[in-house]
Amino acid sequence: MTDPRRHAPATLRNREPLLVTLRRHLPATGLLLEIASGTGEHAAFLAAALPHLTLQPTERDPDALPGIDAWCTGLPNCRPALRLDATAPRWPAAAAVLCVNMIHIAPWAATLGLMRGAAASLPVGGPLILYGPFRRGGAHTAPGNAVFDAELRARDPAWGLRDLEAVAEAAAAQGFAPPIVEPMPANNLTLVFHRS
Ligand SMILES: C[S@@+](CC[C@H](N)C(=O)[O-])C[C@H]1O[C@@H](n2cnc3c(N)ncnc32)[C@H](O)[C@@H]1O
């Protein structure tokens, strides 16, 4: 039988720094809902590293689900992957929501859906954690990010790096406090929004 697991090389580079940052912001127990799980490599890595949490991977792309489940095989705290588009009206309830490298590779409507869905899913004080490259103060934070942004927009004009301030405004509109901003390697940021 063919192995359904997919591999995204970036996950091997960013998963350790991501874990270090997540440990400071995640609740001790409960469901960690991951939006846009992609290959599922983060879900499997985080489930193994954070056994007190339950991972719920999700993906918009139904073809990705078997691969995510294959990566999570043998991890009792990783649930079967769910098909979920960030713009969907109903999300599972969660203690924390994580979304890595999605909002610049999707139309802005996905960001608005993410904020709406996370606000409905989280308890008061629950964190919505975003990881990826962002513009700040109307400018790119590194030349490499500007090149990446141009590549994304050439592939799809609706894609592209988002302004941190616009993301924070969209979050505030759904009742999230201003984000804690954590600098990450390779000119990425982790943004932690708490639902108020
Ligand atoms: C660059 S990949 C990142 C995947 C994974 N989080 C990672 O870090 O490897 C972007 C992912 O976003 C997903 N995606 C795009 N639009 C989405 C949406 N509206 N709702 C949920 N997922 C979406 C894509 O299917 C893809 O798996």
Molecular structure report:
- The protein has six helices and nine strands.
- With 196 residues, it is an alpha/beta fold.
- The mean pLDDT is 97.
- The protein has one domain (9-194): Rossmann fold (3-Layer(aba) Sandwich), CATH 3.40.50.150.
- Helix 1 (9-25) crosses helix 2 (41-49) and helix 4 (108-121) crosses helix 6 (164-173).
- It has helices at 9-25, 41-49, 65-71, 108-121, 143-155, 164-173; strands at residues 30-35, 53-59, 82-83, 96-100, 127-132, 134-135, 162-163, 180-184, 188-194.
- 36% of the residues lie in helices and 21% in strands.
- S-adenosylmethionine binds at residues 8, 11, 35-39, 42, 59-61, 85-87, 100-102, 105-106, 110.
- S-adenosylmethionine (SAM) is lined by residues 8, 11, 35-39, 42, 59-61, 85-87, 100-102, 105-106, 110.
What portion of the residues fall into strands of 2 or more residues? Answer: 15-25%
What integer value in Å does the Rg equal? 16 Å
The count of helical stretches stands at 6
Tell me the series of helices and strands, N- to C-terminal. HEHEHEEHEEHEHEE
Give the tags.
globular; 36% helix; two-stranded parallel ribbon; alpha/beta; single chain; binds S-adenosylmethionine; Rossmann fold; 196 residues; 21% strand
